[in-house]
Amino acid sequence: MALLQFSLAVMGTSLVLVFPGVVRWFFDDIIPNKKLQSILPVAGLAIGAFLIREVLFMVRTRVNSVFEQRMIFDLRGQLHRKIARQPMAWFDKQSTGDVMTRMADDVPATQRVILEGIEQGITSILQIIISAAMMFYANWKLALFVMLPTPFIAAGGWIFSRWVEPRARQEREAASKLNSLLHDTVTGVRQIKSYTAEEAKQRDFERMSGIVRTAKIRLMAAWSIYSPLMTFLGDIGLVTLLGVGAYGCITGLTTPGELLQFIMLIGLFFEPVSRLHGVNQTLVTGLVSAKRVFDIIDHEGEEDLENGCALEHVQGHIEFRGVTFGYDAARPVIRGVSVSVPPHQTVAIVGATGSGKSTLFQLLTRFYDAQGGEILLDEVPVTEYSRHSLRSAIGYVTQDAFLFAGTVRDNLLLGKGDATDEQLWEALTLACAADFVKRLPEGIDAEVGERGMKLSGGERQRLAMARAFLKNAPILLLDEATSAVDNKSEHLIQEALTKLRQNRTCLVIAHRLSTVIEADQIYVMRLGEVLAHGTHHELMQSCPYYAELAALAFESKK
């Protein structure tokens, strides 16, 4: 398609030179020699050239629009795929607003670089070359005078590009930070309102907006110098042509028709030069955006979801052997942790906030890889399994119970894309969510809102559990999955879990010890280490720290 665009551009650009030749023909031959019979044919030639040029322009516009949208589609798809496959450590260092800016602003800017480079850049250069060739063919001495400013224009463009590039980069980075601040304001609006921090956040926004404004003004100040200066140099060429051409006409070195042809040709020469100033501006600012886009696309840290052996016939025997890990390698979150989970048993992990419980789930699912020790599933290190097959074998209910914008059905189908309505309602029933879903105006097709904000915290958690139940994975991870449900729902969910654990391995993290009393084993963690393990009754006798946690938990329920 790019070749077709180029061919259309060459043909269309060549046709613009027909009219200057026709003008010279009229003034140097038809008018002096009074060739009345030649007027209509020659005029028809000019009209035909104009008509064909516009038809070619129409076709080229259609081709460009298809090419443009296809390119944006492909580029956005590549960027989204790359973002979705980045390891969790990458997201830990990246702001959501910056990622959104790269997708929403930098991708179209990158597209403009490529398209204007083809559409405007190539056609402008072709027109410059063809018109210059015509001028040299007609009168090479006059052409040399006309093109005296051209080297200065080219040098000016190069110099200004180098001057503007850091300013464009600063403006893009400032805009990205502004979008990050706006994203935080929208997602954290309840906290802002609860702490009456509207004015403080407004000051933060205005401060960052002021930085963007300053960066934009500095960028436009540079272009305000560049564009008029380049135009002035082009005007010098036009005045030079008039002076030298007039001298040639007076002395007989140049004909009036030739001068008129040159006047038209110089317009065709410097018009694309002026267009190239705008292309240069787009290229400089767009290349900054393109670099931000391709920084992600070319990033080497992508997760390979398929590398490794397939996990088949899962028994569900999980072992953590002396596992050490830290999100910052210099500060381990867990140290030498060993946990054994026999097949089809429920093992609970308890401890104070920050003891490393959730980190174990992050490692088991290979969101991160352990820095010491090893994790085994069915006697095989999890690093030997492909991430895709490993995660397909795990149903994971996270603490924040995240729901996507869409319907209840959409969120459930994430667990099993081909589930029937009967299976959806069965999963909702197991998670004690069927009753409240039936009360929604549109039932299972009701919109849940962004992040599920149309539902209560408890309702979101039960839908998240239903999604995991629907997946029907042999391993179930519940990270504080009942923390936002009432006592009645908690009791019903525990009954469902009792049925589920008969044929699957369950790992449960809970602060509310009442939810894990019946677990086959309970591991107690403190400051990143396993302090003790056993049944509830055993730990009450042998582990004072667990007994203290239990006393606090049951006291809070009175």
Explain what you see:
The structure is a single chain. The protein contains 19 helices and ten strands. It is α/β, with parallel strands linked by helices. It has three domains: 2-297, ABC transporter type 1, transmembrane domain (ABC transporter transmembrane region fold); 307-317 and 326-393 and 474-558, P-loop containing nucleotide triphosphate hydrolases (Rossmann fold), CATH 3.40.50; 404-472, P-loop containing nucleotide triphosphate hydrolases (Rossmann fold, 3-Layer(aba) Sandwich), CATH 3.40.50. The protein has a six-stranded mixed β-sheet, with helices on both faces. The chain has a four-stranded antiparallel β-sheet with strand order 2-1-4-5, with helices on one face. The longest helix has 54 residues, at 198-251.
> What gyration radius follows from the Cα positions, in whole Å?
35 Å
Give the fraction of residues assigned to helices.
Answer: 55-70%
Please report the number of helical segments.
Answer: 19
**CATH topology (level 3) name of the largest domain:** ABC transporter transmembrane region fold
Taking the sheet with the most strands, its summary is: 6 strands, mixed
SS-derived structural category: alpha/beta
Strand content: 5-15%
| Poorly predicted runs | none
Which tags fit this structure?
single chain, alpha/beta, Rossmann fold, 3 domains, six-stranded mixed beta sheet, four-stranded antiparallel beta sheet, 10 strands
Give a quick precis of the structure:
This protein is an alpha/beta fold and 558 residues long. Helices cover 63% and strands 10% of the residues. Helix 1 (2-15) packs parallel to helix 5.
